[in-house]
Amino acid sequence: MSSETGRSSEAVLDRLSTVTGPVNRALQPLANAYNRLLGGYFGEMNGLQFVLIVGTLVGLLTAPLWGNYALIQSMVAASIWAILAMGWDIQSGYTGYISFGHSVLSGGAAYTTAMLIHNVNPELPLLVTIPVSVLAALGIGLLIALPSLRLSGPYFSLITFVAVLIFYRMMNPFSEYTGGETGLSGLEKIFDVTAPAASYYLFLLPMLAVAAALLIVARSNIGLILVAIRENESAVEAAGINATKFKIWSFVLSSIPMGIGGVLLAHRFGNVDPATFIVVDNSIEMIAMAVVGGMSSILGPLGGAFLIILLEDVVLHALGLEAELRWAILWAIVLAILVFARDGLFRKLWHGLERLGGDRR
User: Which residues contact 200 (CB under 8 A, 6 or more apart)?
Assistant: First the structure.
């Protein structure tokens, strides 16, 4: 049944390409100009793919001009979660080592920011707290990676899961510094409700910078080796490449965006607490966003984060449903996507545009 469905979809795309092919050829000069300048860094595109990327970028950058306050708030949240999902993807999506412990990295960065302000100096500027918090996420990432990356499969995932539990339980014994169950409050909120448009870019621009940096890394030799580890780690070792060293590099690369996302999340809410920042639910949400968009693609997790956040906060909320029902419907949709589009929606869209452009590569 699934192969018949696949053949039917391909037949539909082939028929549509007779219409979209000429459109693609008309747009191809623009795509060629991009391919010559930036294709080596971010990947080459055909005309239709170029229009999709440019249109999405223009839509994101001009959102304050056409979006209402609720939409801007949701897009701020989506920008943060996109950073977290992309950070998870460069480690787990590319190497195949599925981590349930990434909420510890973002939560560690958020808590570092809060503890610096509460326990060191309330006047510390963001230029100090942000780098220190990202370094804290990096340290926590290495602390998890060094003992766990010699394991694989469920053993690796179990260790990362246990790391979340340990970090969560440490909040109460050190409540003098962490605030215990209630957490710490009083952080500077960088989302100004009186100037939502200006505040929006404080979240969007870091997200775009993280996406660009991770795309460059993913297309470099490092990214190729991470994918090779996922496909056949024994062959990588046989080629004389130290796979463990590159897996640790993947954690380093992942920890930096996780730290940035954690700090932005802390300054969005103005407080941190273990139930919001450290719970394993956050890691599962990152995984869901990456899988829905398309793992090991960077832009797929970005799209998955925006899809899930906007679906819950805007579309389902507009139907007037209660929070629990919205949550149940959202995860039912995620499960349906996992069953019927296991490669991710945005990966399917990307390959579909290749076919519609008449490109059979």
Answer: 63, 64, 72, 75, 76
Q: Give the residue from 172, 174, 180, 191 showing the smallest Cα distance to 273.
A: 180
- Backbone φ and ψ for 278, nearest 5 degrees, come out as -110, -25
Q: Which residues contact 52 (CB under 8 A, 6 or more apart)?
A: 349, 353
pLDDT of residue 361: 45
Q: Whole-prediction pTM value?
A: 0.92
CA distances from 78 to 72, 163, 212 (A): 10, 26, 17
pLDDT tens, residue by residue, 74-120: 999 999 999 999 999 999 999 999 999 999 999 999 999 999 999 99
Q: Tell me the β-bridge partners of 185.
A: 271
Which residues make beta-bridge pairs with 161?
A: none
Contact 104, 136 (CB under 8 A): no
d(CA 101, CA 27): 43
- Alpha-carbon distance 107 to 91, whole Å? 17
Supply angle C-alpha 336, 258, 117, rounded to 5.
130
At 164-173, the pLDDT tens digits run 999 999 999 9
Q: HEC string of 274-321?
A: HHHHCCHHHHHHHHHHHHHHCCCCCHHHHHHHHHHHHHHHHHHHHCCC
List pLDDT tens digits, range 260-285: 999 999 999 899 999 888 899 999 99
Element (H, E) at 229: helix 221-238
25-27-31-32 Cα dihedral, nearest 10 degrees:
50
